[in-house]
Fold:
Amino acid sequence: MPLCIRDDKVDARATRLQRETNASSKTEAVRIALLHELERNRARKPLRERIAGFQAQAAALGPSDANFNMKAFMDEAWED
Structure:
């Protein structure tokens, strides 16, 4: 669904943002602004909650291999 800006001040700000970001259109400028605002809002989430999300993703991958030798793996990766 298309976004229609009916407020002259908001439209002027979208135009200014388009110029300042060299966006190809006002729609692109608004898309960029919304992505940045979503990221900024996401970053306000407490670190403890963000870490818990990462831990849940890691847990979903399954248990780690207790016999995995990281040193041997890294040594092999760096050999010429």
In short: Residues 8-78 form one domain. Residues 26-43 form the longest helix (18 residues). The chain is about 70% helix and 0% strand. The radius of gyration is 23 Å.
